[in-house]
Every structure is written in structure tokens, then in C-alpha cells.
Specification:
- This protein has a three-stranded antiparallel beta sheet with strand order 1-3-2.
- The protein has about 230 residues and is mainly α.
- The chain has nine helices and three strands.
- The protein has two domains: about 1-30 and about 215-234; about 60-185, no CATH class.
- The chain has helices at about 1-25, 40-55, 60-65, 85-95, 115-130, 135-140, 145-165, 170-185, 200-225, and strands at about 75-80, 100-105, 105-115.
- The protein starts with a helix and ends in a 7-residue tail after the last helix.
- Strand 2 (about 100-105) and strand 3 (about 105-115) form a beta hairpin.
Length: about 230
């Protein structure tokens, strides 16, 4: 019975300490985020790992180099977009790429250099990746996020038309630009990139703490059960 009592006490201590730490994790005492809001432990770590992952997700220079092979490649494209409003913005995007564009409702016809189109969307993505949204908004007279979203939709439509024309290599390049440039720039907008080497101590501590905290909870529950006289049997 004495051993049982010790297990019960140790289990209670472990669980009480676990709850105290749990409460501390969710308290807004971990500084401010990039928007000036107080952040709790989960917000802090989420922002930390976002900044680190952004620092390792800058694929745009390589994609720009790969896209150079399409300079001088002339294409005729017919794209169906979401609605007339999106098509109207898409006309601005492709016109800024040096292409001739005609719109009719939610559909647009494009005649121009594929390489120039790729260069323009990559330049816009690069500006967004570096949090230069104002530059994009001034260029097109539209919200920068909407511009990137429209590029995403336009590239999807381009893939379909290029596949229809059996231009599969060009379609694959459009897919690469969409996923490695447009999506990355859109998803990471507003986040400042950071090298993991600058925060290796916090990263190592957070990973170790996750393992220890999980075991902490497990041992606390096990000691409580044993303190109440319950044991796991093989």
C-alpha cells in the first residue's frame, strides 16, 4: 500500500505540473508576431517554423533559369477562367507580359511569347515572396493577393490548353511555376525568411521538449493508475 501511495502522489505531482506547463504554453507571454499581436507558445513556434521553412523554399531563381528555354516560343492560347471579373484582371497580367489578349466574358485568347509570360509571372512571384505586395498592386491596380491568385488560375487554364495542343513540356513548366513560385509566394507572403542556423538552439529545445512533454503525460497517467491499484498485465 505504501508503494501504491507513492505512485499516486508522484502521478498527481506529474499531472499538476503538466497542467501548469500546459497553461503557460497557451499564455500570450512569448513576445509579438509580425503583426504586433501577443503570441502564445504555439503561435511562437508556428511562426518560427514558418520563417525557417520559407528560408528553405526559395525556388524561384532556379525556376527562372529553367524557364529561359521558352524565350522566343510563340503560343496561341484559349483560356476559360472563373468569371468575367477574373478574366478582366487576367487580361492585364498577360498584357504586361507583352502578349496580345482578347477577352469575351470569362474567356480570353492570348497570342504572344510563352517565355515572356513565364518571366512576368515569376517576377511577380519573386516580388510577393519578398513581401513587396505594394509593388504588385501598383503594377496592376489590384490587390496583390488577388493578382497571385489570378496567376494561379490562369496557369491552371494554360496547362489544360497546352495539353490539348500536345505541348506537354510547356504545360509541365507552367505547373512548376505554379507550384514552386506562385503558391510559395502566396502562402509565405508577410513572413520574413530565417535560416535555421540562427535559431538552432530553440529548434532543438522545442523538439526535445515535445518528446519529454509527451512522456511526462504518459508517466503521469501511468502512476495515477498504479496509485489506484490498476496495472497493465501481459
Amino acid at each position: 500500500m505504501a508503494a501504491q501511495g507513492k505512485k499516486l502522489v508522484s502521478g498527481l505531482i506529474l499531472m499538476v505540473a503538466f497542467v501548469v506547463v500546459f497553461i503557460l504554453i497557451f499564455m500570450p507571454i512569448y513576445g509579438k508576431d509580425q503583426h504586433g499581436h501577443d503570441q502564445n507558445g504555439l503561435n511562437y513556434l508556428d511562426n518560427l517554423y514558418n520563417t525557417i521553412s520559407k528560408g528553405s523554399a526559395y525556388y524561384i531563381p532556379k525556376v527562372q533559369k529553367d524557364a529561359e528555354q521558352y524565350l522566343g516560343n510563340q503560343v496561341e492560347l484559349g483560356l476559360a477562367l472563373k468569371d468575367a471579373k477574373q478574366a478582366e484582371l487576367a487580361v492585364k497580367l498577360f498584357s504586361a507580359s507583352g502578349a496580345q489578349v482578347q477577352a469575351e466574358g470569362d474567356k480570353i485568347k492570348i497570342s504572344g511569347g510563352l517565355g515572356k509570360i513565364f518571366q512576368n509571372v515569376l517576377a511577380d512571384s519573386d516580388a510577393m515572396y519578398h513581401n513587396q505586395g505594394d509593388k504588385i498592386s501598383q503594377k496592376y491596380g489590384a490587390d496583390h493577393r488577388l493578382v497571385l491568385y489570378t496567376w494561379h488560375q490562369a496557369l491552371t487554364a494554360m496547362q489544360k490548353d497546352l495539353d490539348r495542343q500536345h505541348k506537354f513540356a510547356e504545360s509541365k513548366m507552367a505547373e512548376t511555376i505554379k507550384t514552386r513560385a506562385v503558391e510559395c509566394a502566396y502562402n509565405y507572403y508577410g513572413i520574413e525568411p530565417q535560416n535555421i542556423g540562427d535559431k538552432w538552439g530553440i529548434v532543438l529545445f522545442s523538439l526535445a521538449f515535445y518528446v519529454v512533454y509527451t512522456l511526462w503525460y504518459g508517466f503521469g497517467i501511468m502512476h495515477l493508475f498504479e496509485g489506484f491499484g490498476m496495472k497493465l498485465e501481459h
